[in-house]
Write a structure and sequence with these properties.
7-stranded mixed sheet; two-stranded parallel ribbon; binds zinc ion
């Protein structure tokens, strides 16, 4: 991996221990502040940080290359992650949801989790795993159907606040915070206008999410916005086409872990999702061993699959055209039986 490319990490939230007690975000989105500092300290010593505001340098220099990204634009990115990143001179890129800035409980998974958690306290028990599975099932539905079901659960911020759910930690950055971080060197990209999963909405709506978010970010920051990340990491050939037409330079996935190599489609760059249990040992301290196992090795497995797929495509093209070295980018589910 040191020779071939960079690992792009996806973080969401960096929370203090007391914020962890209050949040409705699922564990897969959370890293504790002390863990994040421990990770940055280790990474600063052993790796090279990649600045996503510049074109990648593919020259190997013997160190593992790491890019740090955040999805959603939570306010803790400004209060928790940014000060640590500055301390360790780590460039970060944050993908914001342009029409959901400065909002409490901006996204339906937190609203749903908060509602279900509240219902559990009042009635029959619903454990964390149940809530997580329910949210994954809701992600599969068309957006309109999902809204209907969530509405039936009274999962709106107003209703939740009247139920007394503690929500103050679950809010997104304001434009003022975003502008301050931007002046401090943070790179901002789009994560759509309202965080719709783009494969579950009509094409015209997906296009609007992709285009108008970019326009708004550029207007507010008075700077180009050339990076995009797909909500929930979900993409299709059609959605990729819309992102290309909108003029984005790099777009990031978050489904199958992998490595960003020279051969990658610049609009389908794999990332590795990182949360607390990918980083800490049994005592809760940052562990290089766990990080290397849960993050770096996972990316390596993805890289092997990428290389195998590219190699197979190259052979196939050679058989078809007699021209070596030419290969088309293949789709996500085109892995066939090994031979
Ligand atoms: Zn997101």
């Amino acid at each position: 991996m040191r020779r071939r490319g960079a690992i792009v990490l996806t973080f969401h939230r960096v929370l203090t221990d007391s914020e962890v007690q209050q949040t409705a975000s699922l564990p897969g989105m959370i890293v504790r502040s002390s863990t994040f500092s421990g990770f940055l300290k280790y990474a600063a010593q052993t790796s090279e940080f990649v600045d996503l505001s510049r074109d990648p340098e593919w020259q190997p220099n013997g160190k593992l290359k790491l890019a740090i990204t955040f999805d959603d634009g939570w306010s803790d990115n400004a209060t928790g992650a940014y000060p640590s990143a500055r301390q360790y001179h780590a460039p970060i890129a944050i993908f914001i949801v342009a029409e959901k800035t400065g909002t409490t409980l901006p996204f339906w998974p937190e609203r749903t989790a908060a509602t279900m958690d509240r219902m559990a306290k009042d009635g029959p028990g619903r454990d964390a795993l149940y809530i997580e599975r329910a949210i994954e099932a809701l992600k599969e539905l068309p957006a309109s159907e999902r809204e209907l079901r969530i509405g039936q659960m009274a999962g709106t911020p107003g209703v939740l606040q009247s139920m007394g759910v503690a929500t103050s930690v679950d809010r997104t950055m304001t434009w003022q915070q975003i502008q301050e971080l931007h002046s401090g060197g943070v790179t901002f990209g789009s994560h759509t206008s309202t965080h719709e999963i783009l494969t579950t909405v009509p094409t015209a709506q997906a296009e609007k999410e992709i285009v108008s978010s970019r326009d708004l970010i550029q207007e507010k920051l008075k700077a180009p916005c050339s990076l995009f990340s797909y909500p929930n990491g979900d993409c299709s050939a059609q959605v990729r086409g819309l992102v290309a037409a909108a003029g984005y330079k790099f777009a990031f996935l978050n489904q199958d872990p992998g490595v960003w190599t020279r051969d990658c489609d610049p609009l389908l760059i794999p990332r590795v999702n990182v949360c607390e249990y990918h980083l800490v040992d049994a005592r809760g301290d940052f562990s290089p061993l766990i990080f290397n196992y849960a993050v770096v090795w996972n990316a390596a497995k993805g890289l092997l699959a990428q290389m195998w797929k590219a190699n197979r495509q190259r052979r196939k093209n050679k058989r078809q055209t007699g021209t070596p070295g030419l290969w088309k980018q293949s789709g996500k589910n085109q892995l066939e039986k090994p031979y």
